[in-house]
Amino acid sequence: MRVVHYLNQFYAGIGAEEKAGIPLEARAGAVGPAKLLDQLLGEGARVVATLVCGDNYAVEHQQEVIASLVAKVREERADLFVAGPCFDAGRYGMAAGALCSAVHAELGIPVVTGMSEENPGADLYREALYIIDSGTSPAKMREVVGKMAALGKKLVNKAAVGLPAEEGYLRRGLLRDQLVEDTAGKRLVDMILAKVKGEPFESEMLPAQFPPVPMPPPVKDLSRAKVMLVTDGGLVPKGNPDKIEPRAATRWGCYSIEGRSDLRGEDYEISHGGYDPRFVQEDPDRLVPLDAARELEQSGVIGKLHHEFISTSGLSNPLSNTRRLGREIAEKVKKEGVDAVILTST
Amino acid sequence: MQLTLARHPIAELRFGASTYLDKTTLVIDREELGRLLLADGSLQEVRFEIVHPGESCRAGPVFDIVEPRAKEPGCSPDFPGVLGPPLTAGSGTTRVLAGAAVTVLSEKSTDESRGVTGRVLEMSGAPAEASPYSSLRHLVVVPRTRPGLAKHAIEKAYRLAGLRCAVHLARAALGQPPESTHPFEPVGPARKGREGIPRVAYVGQIFSRQRKPAVDEPVLYGLNTDGMLPVVLDPDEWLDGAILPSYHSSIGGAETYFYQNHPVILELYRRHHAGDLSFVGTVATVAGSDNFDRDRNCRAAANLVRWVLSAEAAVLTKYGGGVPHADLAETARLLEGYGIRTAVMVTDSSRDRRVESALLFNFPEVNAIVYNGGNGTRWTLPRAERIVTPSAEMAELLGGPIELGAANIIGVTNQQGASRLRGVVY
């Protein structure tokens, strides 16, 4: 197994902050912590090159450093790329994360790094990478590099990787399926017994944490505002021209309501698998309240109703996808000069 | 009310000239059984096949799986409200052909969200390891309904075929000595002598109003659940035929078999008998169709747990997808507000395998969560030597090799508590 190790100028023994501007350079064989890695990897594996870059240089010339580092790792025909451990050194952690991501994406080889949980690089890269939890103390170097070596070998050998507590990496926030001995029913009863008796128990899922959405400022003058109707209830024209999926939708559509003050069931269908659609099918205004909005427009409560409504289907959709849909819809609304949106859901 | 299960373990099913139980072998007269199922006129034809664990065999699409059970004469009826009057289930002795199953197929996949294959019974390989159904001996019922029947009439025909078949087979055990008998100690909020032992209730959703039930769709004592508010049930009612799954399989899957062998209720009973907890009863509820419906149902369920069952703790399971997930969490939140501790079981909602997409609630007090997996598991099923299915097109489709997700292999992601596939955070 051929291993390439990345270090910053400090751990490579070149110097401290005064040497943080040095560009990327390659040393044959193992230097500094790479020697320890070489030793802990044991037989059948060796560090063939140590790549070193100053912390400032790596951050300030990131694209250039990535390109030349990837080229060097390729040249070395590496089976594994290791960076750090970076402990709580922020610039070092950011560089290690970026370099590991690039090597993995471009060369497809396993990568391992190490950081403390507080390192800004950990925040940014913990989902994408295996980051061994190094803590903040370099005194733990041997222990940390040992975990990096063990995990790196597993990845190269395509062996099963255990859970964060077993392997020592920072929790990535991902899910995988595992066949376990006890049924869900037994686990449920075990959990309630522990909880009601005040004993420790481990929930199988972390609590959801949604960042608060700040309340937008009020519409200054509704009687002059351009208002748009947006729904995630899946109302689409007959034939579903944009092929909006009834669950986990990846698309949204924009449909004209020009010159109309009422939506008729025979012109529309509902692409949504999560609610009883009969009442909307009977009268789509129940979901997209065009009739009521026209009245508000005519009586001057709102300035103008935008001549299209936007629709998608909000069901079983991962947040990574709904964020994109939301962003795209918001861009469209902004582009149309809309001042206020009435958002209807089911 | 006291239920006793009389177990007759079944090691072999085979066809013969009459239906009888010979120790652990169940011999089935398929002509007699066919006549029984064809009698009501909804089915035009019915075939039977026997399927064994470990066999290179695939059957589908599965409509339902039922354990063969029959009541002793003089007890509550078999499947009350469906095969008999809606008298309270769960009294007297029920004969159980343990290790056997009646598996009813449908002519096509009944649920769009399952795709064209529907749910498949797989008897060997990795998927079989993950499904509790693969270790059973199945009599597979392959029905053909009369042309021109409405959808609800077709589904009712499948339902009745499965239940009638299961009762008919288990009647072979009447009058024979069971291998063992299992009486359930009566439970409830008024039991004395268990002071100081945590009082635990079970709250189970049995339907989700995301879909309108068919008028004659039997779910609770034959009722289709329309207009239903949460109701207190003795646990034995669940085990003894009062509740059936909806025609639409829920996202994780729910089958009659795991109402009869309810994993949560049986575990609560086991721990009750061991003196670890005091099982005070159950509430059957539904997931709402809108916010008012949700508030009504969740509050009524939580109030029954508090005032009728006087529980200190409750375990909750769901039926269906996202709306039920949210209703389950809201019920748990209300219970926690009453000082009643909760643990909940949810199905896998994360299609992108990110923890952030896993839950549809963020109530800090609802912090004891059992998480069933599924979205991360797909298998390529090899060509099977034997395909049991109603039509040539389905045979072609299911023949294999075919790639299917965990939720399409019946039993793997069951949300009644039988699943062993867990979502693990890493």
Could you explain how this protein is built, in words?
The complex is a heterodimer of chains A (346) and B (426). In chain A, strand 5, helix 5 (120-125) and strand 6 form a beta-alpha-beta unit. Chain A contains 11 helices and 13 strands. Helix content of chain A is 34%, strand content 19%. The longest helix of chain A is centred in the N-terminal third of the chain and has 18 residues, at 90-107. In chain A, helix 1 (33-41) crosses helix 6 (141-156) and helix 3 crosses helix 4 (90-107). Chain B is α/β, with parallel strands linked by helices and 426 residues long. In chain B, helix 8 (322-337) links the parallel strand 17 and strand 18 (341-346). In chain B, helix 7 crosses helix 8. The mean pLDDT of chain B is 95. Chains A and B meet through strand 7, helix 8 and helix 11 of A and helix 6, strand 17, strand 18, strand 19 and strand 23 of B.
